[in-house]
Write a structure and sequence with these properties.
Number of domains: 1
Strand content: under 5%
Radius of gyration: 17 Å
Order of helices and strands: HHHHH
Shape: globular
Number of strands: 0
Largest sheet: none
Number of helices: 5
Length: 152
């Protein structure tokens, strides 16, 4: 077995694990909000980023979008588009959290649950979301690398 094949096998497994983890995260986040759109709309409103007329629309669409992205990542379908969408969402989520923290808005992130948090830990939320974004960037890099070499 060649040295390149030995090096690529762990990378392939790491890529698969990262993609599956991100998919599971998006599905878990979507399910947590899907059945409580009113409460989720309240969380979105509390971020004070979107105009009022877009809050309810975002609260209805976002959980479905997260679940769709998660399913696409899990099954590996339309991977380049799915991972770009996942990275975009992760960037927006991280920016929204950073914005709320910078403005001193004391809210729970609403990432996986619509239940209010007693004392939000922005440092934890930001570092967790940054980790997910870096994981997404690694999956993006590997996806583009695979595509550029014509391997599937």
């Amino acid at each position: 077995m060649s040295q390149n094949r030995l090096k690529s096998r762990p990378v392939k497994y790491l890529f698969l694990l990262s993609r599956l983890l991100l998919g599971a995260v998006f599905i878990a986040a979507g399910i947590g909000k899907l059945f409580h759109p009113g409460e989720f709309a309240g969380i979105i409103y509390n971020y004070q980023i979107l105009p009022d007329h877009l809050v309810n629309i975002a609260a209805i669409i976002l959980p479905w979008l997260e679940m769709l992205v998660g399913l696409l990542l899990l099954c590996g379908c339309w991977l380049p588009g799915a991972i770009v969408l996942a990275d975009s969402l992760l960037f927006v989520f991280l920016a929204a959290l950073a914005s709320a923290a910078a403005r001193g808005i004391d809210i729970g992130c609403g990432c996986f649950s619509v239940k209010p948090t007693a004392s939000p830990n922005f440092a934890w939320y930001l570092s967790r979301d940054l980790f997910f974004l870096l994981l997404g960037a690694a999956v993006t890099f590997q996806t583009l690398k695979i595509r550029s070499f014509g391997k599937h």
